[in-house]
Design a protein that fits this description.
six-stranded mixed beta barrel; alpha/beta; Barwin-like endoglucanases; 28 helices; 27 strands; 720 residues
C-alpha cells in the first residue's frame, strides 16, 4: 500500500467515514497532477491535490476537483450504441461490446481489402494519453493516417526541438529562474503539457523577473515587469527583433555560440534583416520595449521561456518554436539549472517504440495524406486534417472511407467547422469513443463508452518530456465503460494483430516498464519515478542533432526543401496581406481563449464548472464596442468571410481596440436537439483551413489571425 506522508489524511478517513483514499494522477486536461481520491460506499466522494506529488504539490484546478461530476453524470454514455436512422437523427440502440467491436473490425478489414489500409483513418483528441496505442493499431494495419491536433498543438515543438536541440527544452522551475518569458501562454488558467501554474507562481514569489508576450492583458501580464502586446501572428518578427538586439549588442554567450551552435554566420545575416524599426512596424510593439525585454532576458541568469499553442496555431508555427529555442541557447540558458533543461525520461519503452512506427512500410509511409507537402509534420507521423476532409469529400488523392475517433470532437475543435461537419456526414463509416454523445459522436455509426481517468490503470505522463512518470490507479468502474487502451487491444485481436498486442492491457504496462526491471504491480506501489537529472549534457556529447550542435541553420529542414533559417511570414488574412478584406472585416480575431473549467469542447455539462462559465464570451475593447453600438453583456454576432456565430460581449481594456478575442469549442449539451447547437457559437465556423495559408512545414492552421466584424445580434438579422 502506498504510504501517506501527511497524517491528516488518516484523520480525515476516520472523521468522515471514508472507506479509503487512493493516490492517483488526474487526466482532466493534459494531466500531471497527483490527486487523492476519497471513496465511500464504492463511490468517489471527494478529490483533492496530493501534497506529495512533485508536479503540483497539492494544488488542483476546478476540472480535477469536479472529475466525479463528469464520471457520474446522468447523460454519460455507459454502454456501446449504434445509430438507428440517418446521421444526426439522435436515435440510438444499445448493443454489446462484442457486436460493436466485431462491426468495427469488419469495416476496417473490408476497407483495407477494397481501398487499402490508408482508407482507414484513426484519430484522437488532446490529452488522453492514448496516442501510443492508436499509432500502434494504425501502423500495424498499414495506415499512415492518424488524425491528431499535432499539426498545431505540442507536435510542432516536439518536431522542431528534436531537429534543433534533440528534445523539448523544459523550464527548470525547481532551480528558480531569475527571469521568465511567458510567451503566448496563460499558465494561471491553462496548465498544459509539462507545466502547472504553481511552480511558476512560486518562482515569481522568489523574485523572478517576468516578461509576458501576449496580445491580451492576462493575469500574468498584469504582474509582469514587461508586457509586450504584439499584433497576433507576428511572434516570429518579435523574436527576430529580440535576437537582433542580443546579437548586435553582443549579449550572447560567446563560449556557447562558438562551440555548440551550427550556422551562426547565416543566422546573424538573417537576424540583421529584422532591425527594430521594421519589427515595430510589423508587431505594433514599440522598439524601445523590445530592446528592454531582450536586454533583461539576455543579462539575467538563469532565464527561461515557457510558451503555449498560441505561437503554434499560425503559419509561422515551426519557425516560432525554433526561434524561442535560439533565444534560450545563445544566451547560455539551454540545459542549465534554472534555465531550459533537456530532461531525461526514466528507462522505459518510449511512446515512439510503443507506437510501432517501425511497422509502417516505406510504401505506406509515402501515402500519408499531405505528407508530400507538410514534410516535417509527416516525418513525425502528423497529418493535416484538411487533407482528411478532402480525401472524404473529393476522394483526393485517394478515398478515405472510415474514421475511428477516440476522445476527439473535431466538429468543435478544427477550423472551417462547416466543412468538417460535411466530411463527417459524408464518410462511409465512423466509430467514436467518448464520454458523451457530442456533436461529433452524433454523426457516428457506433459510439463506444470511454472510461475516465478514475476508471483505468495507466502510466501517467508517459509521453511528456519533464522526466517523470506517475501511476494512474483505477478507483472505480462505471457501467460498461472501457479505457481507450483496453478497447484498442481488444479490437487489434479482431483484425489479426494479436501477435503485436497482449492478452490484457496490464501486460502492455509491464512491457513499457520492463527496461527498469519492474512490473505495473510494482509501479502501483510507488509515488513516481524520475529520470536522471543532469545538466549541460551537451558539453559531454553534444546535442542529439545531425551536427551534434544547436542548429540555428537546420540541416534537416534544408534536406526537406525548406528555408533552413527562420523568417516572418505575414498571416494569410491580415491588415497587411489582405487590406481589401480588412476594410470590410476591421478586427483581428483571436480564437481559443481558455477558461479554467473547460478542456477544449469538454465539461460544459459539469454543474460546478458550467456555473462559472454560463455563456460563450467575446472580449472587445470599450472604444471598439462604442463604435459598433455594443454594450457589456450584449449578445453579438461575430462574422468572418466564412460565416457568423453569436457570443456574449465582455468589454475589456486589456487588448488593442483593433483586436477581439473569442472563446472556442462552445456547444450546449443542455440543448437536447441533435447537434446540441453546435453551430450557434462555434468560433471555428469563422476560422480558415486553406492549405495555401498554413505553416509550410507543419501544416498548422491560423486560429489567431482571422479578420472579422462584430455587431449587436439585433442588427442585420442576427445569424440568419
Amino acid at each position: 500500500m502506498v504510504q501517506f506522508k501527511y497524517s491528516n489524511i488518516e484523520k480525515e478517513i476516520e472523521t468522515y467515514g471514508y472507506d479509503g483514499v487512493v493516490k492517483s494522477h488526474c487526466r482532466m486536461c493534459h494531466g500531471g497532477c497527483g490527486v487523492l481520491v476519497y471513496v465511500k460506499d464504492g463511490k468517489v466522494v471527494k478529490i483533492a491535490g496530493d501534497p506529495d506529488c512533485p508536479i503540483n504539490h497539492g494544488t488542483l484546478c476546478s476540472k480535477g476537483i469536479a472529475s466525479a461530476q463528469l464520471t457520474y453524470h446522468p447523460d454519460r454514455l455507459t454502454y456501446p450504441v449504434k445509430r438507428v436512422g440517418p446521421k444526426a437523427s439522435g436515435k440510438w440502440e444499445r448493443i454489446s461490446w462484442d457486436e460493436a467491436l466485431d462491426t468495427i473490425a469488419e469495416r476496417i478489414l473490408e476497407c483495407k481489402e477494397k481501398y487499402g489500409p490508408e482508407s482507414v483513418v484513426f484519430g484522437y483528441g488532446t490529452g488522453r494519453e492514448n496516442e501510443a496505442a492508436i499509432y500502434r493499431i494504425a501502423n500495424c494495419l498499414g495506415s499512415p493516417n492518424v488524425l491528431t491536433a499535432g499539426h498545431f498543438c505540442y507536435g510542432p515543438r516536439i518536431s522542431t526541438s528534436i531537429i534543433t536541440c534533440g528534445t523539448n527544452p523544459i523550464v527548470d522551475y525547481e532551480n528558480f529562474p531569475k527571469c521568465i518569458i511567458l510567451w503566448g501562454n496563460n499558465v494561471t488558467i491553462v496548465n498544459a503539457d509539462e507545466y502547472k501554474g504553481q511552480p511558476f507562481s512560486v518562482a515569481l514569489d522568489h523574485g523572478a523577473k517576468l516578461i509576458v508576450i501576449d496580445p491580451r492583458l492576462t493575469r500574468p501580464a498584469a504582474r509582469a515587469d514587461i508586457w509586450l502586446p504584439l499584433r497576433p501572428g507576428t511572434d516570429s518578427a518579435l523574436a527576430l527583433g529580440m535576437l537582433n538586439v542580443i546579437v548586435n549588442e553582443e549579449l550572447y554567450d560567446k563560449e556557447f555560440v562558438e562551440n555548440y551552435t551550427y550556422g551562426w554566420q547565416q543566422f546573424v545575416q538573417r537576424v540583421n534583416e529584422y532591425p527594430l524599426e521594421k519589427v515595430e512596424e510589423i508587431t505594433w510593439v514599440p522598439k524601445d520595449k523590445i530592446r528592454e525585454a531582450a536586454r533583461l532576458f539576455a543579462t539575467t541568469k538563469p532565464s527561461a521561456i515557457q510558451w503555449g499553442v498560441a505561437i503554434e496555431q499560425q503559419n509561422n508555427c515551426a519557425d516560432n518554436d525554433r526561434l524561442l529555442m535560439f533565444l534560450m541557447g545563445i544566451t547560455g540558458n539551454l540545459d542549465a539549472p534554472g534555465g531550459q533543461v533537456l530532461f531525461r525520461t526514466p528507462e522505459i519503452i518510449n511512446v515512439g517504440h510503443f507506437g510501432a512506427h517501425g511497422m509502417l512500410s516505406k510504401d505506406q509511409f509515402a501515402k500519408r495524406l499531405g505528407g508530400d507537402r507538410f514534410r516535417l509534420a509527416s516525418r513525425f507521423a502528423i497529418l493535416q486534417p484538411r487533407c482528411v476532409w478532402d480525401a472524404i469529400l473529393k476522394e483526393e488523392p485517394y478515398p478515405v472511407k472510415m474514421l475511428f475517433l477516440i476522445s476527439s470532437n473535431p466538429v468543435m475543435t478544427r477550423p472551417n467547422a462547416k466543412d468538417v461537419f460535411r466530411a463527417l456526414e459524408r464518410v462511409e463509416f465512423m466509430a467514436v469513443a467518448d464520454f458523451f454523445l457530442t456533436p461529433t459522436a452524433e454523426l457516428a455509426d457506433i459510439v463506444l463508452p470511454a472510461a475516465t481517468w478514475l476508471e483505468m490503470d495507466y502510466i501517467g505522463d508517459f509521453w511528456k518530456r519533464h522526466g517523470y512518470i506517475l501511476p494512474r490507479r483505477k478507483v472505480i468502474q462505471v457501467g460498461e465503460c472501457r479505457s481507450d487502451h483496453e478497447m484498442l487491444n481488444d479490437l487489434a485481436h479482431r483484425i489479426g494483430q494479436g501477435k503485436y498486442w497482449w492478452d490484457n492491457f496490464e501486460q502492455a504496462l509491464d512491457f513499457i516498464l520492463k527496461p527498469m526491471g519492474i512490473t505495473w504491480q510494482d509501479f502501483k506501489q510507488m509515488d513516481y519515478i524520475r529520470g536522471e537529472v543532469k545538466y549541460y549534457k551537451y558539453k559531454e556529447r553534444g546535442f542529439s542533432t545531425p551536427t551534434r550542435k544547436l542548429e540555428l541553420y537546420s540541416t534537416v529542414l534544408e534536406k526537406l526543401g525548406y528555408d533552413p533559417l527562420p523568417q516572418h511570414r505575414e498571416p494569410p488574412e491580415s491588415p497587411v496581406s489582405t487590406p481589401e478584406v480588412y476594410e470590410k472585416y476591421p478586427y483581428i480575431l483571436i480564437t481559443g481563449v481558455r477558461q479554467p473549467g473547460f478542456f477544449h469542447s469538454e465539461n460544459r455539462q459539469i454543474p460546478w464548472v458550467r456555473e462559472l462559465h454560463r455563456d460563450p464570451i467575446v472580449e472587445i475593447h470599450p472604444d471598439a464596442a462604442a463604435n459598433e453600438g455594443i454594450k457589456e453583456g450584449d449578445w453579438v454576432v461575430i462574422e468572418s468571410r466564412r460565416g457568423k456565430v453569436r457570443q456574449r460581449a465582455k468589454l475589456t481594456l486589456g487588448c488593442d481596440p483593433r483586436i477581439v478575442s473569442a472563446q472556442h469549442a462552445w456547444w450546449f449539451p443542455e440543448n437536447k436537439d441533435p447537434g446540441h447547437g453546435w453551430a450557434e457559437s462555434n468560433i471555428n465556423i469563422l476560422t480558415e483551413d486553406d492549405l495555401e495559408g498554413m505553416d509550410p512545414a507543419m501544416g498548422a492552421s491560423n486560429l489567431k489571425t482571422a479578420l472579422c466584424r462584430i455587431y449587436p445580434e439585433k442588427q442585420e438579422g442576427g445569424l440568419s
